Structure formats: C-alpha cells, structure tokens
Amino acid sequence: MRIALASDAWAPQTNGVVTTLKCTAETLTALGHEVRVISPQGLTCIPCPSYPEYLRARWPIPLAATCAWLKRFHGAATRTFISSATLEAQLSARGFARLHRWRRGVDLRTFRPLPPHPQLARLPRPVMACVGRLAVEKNLDAFLGLNLPGTKVMIGDGPQRHALAARHPGAVFTGYRYGEELVRCLATADVLVFPSLTDTFGLAMIEALACGVPVAAFPAPGPLDVIEQDVTGVLHQDLSEAIRSALRLERRVCAERAAGFSWHAATAQFLAGLAPIPLALRATLAVSRSSVIIARMAARRQTSEAGDAN
Q1: Can you give the pLDDT at residue 297?
Q2: Which residues of 240-270 are buried (b: 16+ CB within 10 A; e: fewer)?
Q3: Which pLDDT value is given to residue 309?
Q4: Alpha carbon 265 to chain centroid distance?
C-alpha cells in the first residue's frame, strides 16, 4: 500500500507526535508499505497552536469556539484517529463522528532498565523526573511547586524553561536528552511525574514504564488510559499523594507491563483504520494543484537532505 502521512510536526521537533509518526512510518516500511511524509521540514513556517486547551492556555479563546472549528475540519474525514478510550468518549460527547482508536507504542529495544545516569545518580533521593516540552499547557508548575523531599528533574526544553527555572531554582533542568542518555536519565528516576491535563496520550509515561519507573499523574485523559492504578502508577487529584504512593510500587512490574505497548500492535490499529482513496478521486488528485505543490516540497526536501549529507 502507498501511504501519505501529512503532518505539521516533524523533525527537528521533539515531541510525542513526531515520535509516533516516525515509528509508525518505520514500522509500515518494515511491513512492506511505501510511505511518503508531507511535513514542513525545509520550509519556512511559524508556530500556530491549534488544540482547544492549548489555545485557552495562551489566550482567552472559549473551548466551544475551537472545538466547533475542529469538528467542522474533521467532519470531512472518512475517519478521525484518536489515541485512547477516554478521548473517544470526550469527542463523541462533543459530536465528533467516525472515530477510530489508534494507540501508541514504545521501542522496547531502546527503553529498558539501565544503570543510572552518572550526572544524576548522586542527587538527593527520591528523584522525581518530568519529561517533555516545557510549555504552559503542560501544567508544570503543579509539579514544580510541590513541597516534597528529594530532587525534581526536568528532562526537556521549551519556551517556558527560563521562566520555570527562575520560579523553581531548586529543580534540575537537563535540556533535551536523546537515545541511550535519555534512557539512563529515566532509569535514574524513582518516579516519573506527569502533571499534564491536556495530553491525549503521553508517550513519556510508557517510555518510563519500559525503564522500570512508576508514574504519578492526575486522573486525566492519557494517564487514565495508560496507567494501571496502584500497579504501574498512581493517579490522584493530590499530585503529592500520587508521587508518595507511586514510590512504593514495584519497578520490575512496570517494565513487564510496558511490553504490552508495541509499535507493531499500534501500527496494526493504524492500518485497520485506513480508507483507500477512490479511483476516480485519485485521477483528480494526480493533476491537482496540491499534487504539484507536494511534488515541489518533496524535491526541495531531497535537495536539502543531499546538501546535509555533503
């Protein structure tokens, strides 16, 4: 099958969407499918937050207004993919139709229990890690403002980093970490704290579980669908209580449960939700202005990648 993935999020961005699309494209290719990615890479672009909760976190825009726009936008689709049962229920209640479940996975060859990171291993315990983009919609002050013993470690970067560091000088900010170093940073943690109330899934949680690290979070979409209460993490309206209780959980069980989140299983759900483009419409698309623009984007990207290789 020939599959086009169109996304406003792609390398060099670092977030769950990019990770999901890259791993999905790799798995599809390994299964014998031909994948073309349509992304802003190599093009001039500006940031444009569009999710209702993200907009509301920055400007006084009512949720109803952005939800109505998104409902109209997705109404043209044969299917709208969603990452969890909780999100499916929420969107169905708002009138979104033709929803298809597509959950996420974790690369178990990369994320696994490892010895701690040497630069973090000597920090006062417990080490409470938070991984991801440092942005206003992530609700990070809810974690950093807690009065708890130990060390808060922020693994990631983003527009709120300097403001957060100024407000919470006792926290450790590592910036982005990748590959084996990220895994060892996670493995150092005694608990992963996930304070977001707006994420649709939360890849960082299953990556932490794969490293044997339990999760503390609010009972919100994402954690509600990923965490087994009192087994792989603790969900509580009092985040301090969630952290204290999660510290008592068995790390070995967390790593074992993470094995249930594979990219092959996630990609099988993705494939099951695809709807082939009708033949008559394919002929129209082949000569459309959009196809010409896409071809130019692909040629420009290939030229850019060749230049980088040289």
Answers
A1: 60
A2: eebbbbbbebebeebbebbeebebeebbebb
A3: 40
A4: 17
* SS3 state of residue 38: strand
Angle between helices 289-309 and 279-286 (to 10 degrees): 70
Q: Which residues of the chain have pLDDT under 50?
A: 307-310
CA 202 – CA 226 distance, rounded (Å): 8
- Sign of the CA dihedral 186, 191, 197, 200? positive
Q: Are 260 and 254 spatial neighbours (Cβ–Cβ below 8 Å)?
A: no
Neighbours of 180 (CB within 10 A): 11
Domain formed by 127-258, architecture: 3-Layer(aba) Sandwich (3.40)
CA-wise closest residue to 213 among 173, 246, 260, 180 = 246
d(CA 240, CA 245): 9
CATH architecture, domain defined by 2-105+263-309: 3-Layer(aba) Sandwich (3.40)
Place of tokens 């202005």: 289
The pTM score is 0.86
What confidence score (pLDDT) does residue 42 get? 76
Do domains 2-105+263-309 and 127-258 share one topology? The answer is: yes
Paired with 172 in beta bridges are 153
pLDDT of 10 reads: 84
- What are the structural domain ranges in the chain? 2-105+263-309, 127-258
Give the Cα separation of 291 and 309 in Å (integer): 27
Buried b (16+ CB within 10 A) or exposed e, 12-51: eebebebbbbebbbebbeeeeeebebbbebbeeeeeebee
Tokens, residue 249: 């959980």
The token duo for 85 is 């049962």
Phi-psi region of 222 (alpha: psi -120 to 50; beta: other; left: phi over 0): left
